[in-house]
């Protein structure tokens, strides 16, 4: 079974991914999560908030 991440970690990861100015790949590597996982978190957040998703 994979590592369980807290909701707080996920929220922080999404905030970093949307504001860091780095590529999504670099953010995922820095956070030690898979890029597809980070993308899912970002998409979920953006859908919840009604934002458009930008993939870098």
UniProtKB/TrEMBL annotation:
This is Transposase.
């Amino acid at each position: 079974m994979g590592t369980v991440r807290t909701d707080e970690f996920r929220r922080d990861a999404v905030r970093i991914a949307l504001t860091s100015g780095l590529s999504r790949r670099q953010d995922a590597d820095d956070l030690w999560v898979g890029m597809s996982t980070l993308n899912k978190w970002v998409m979920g957040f953006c859908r919840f908030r009604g934002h458009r998703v930008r993939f870098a």
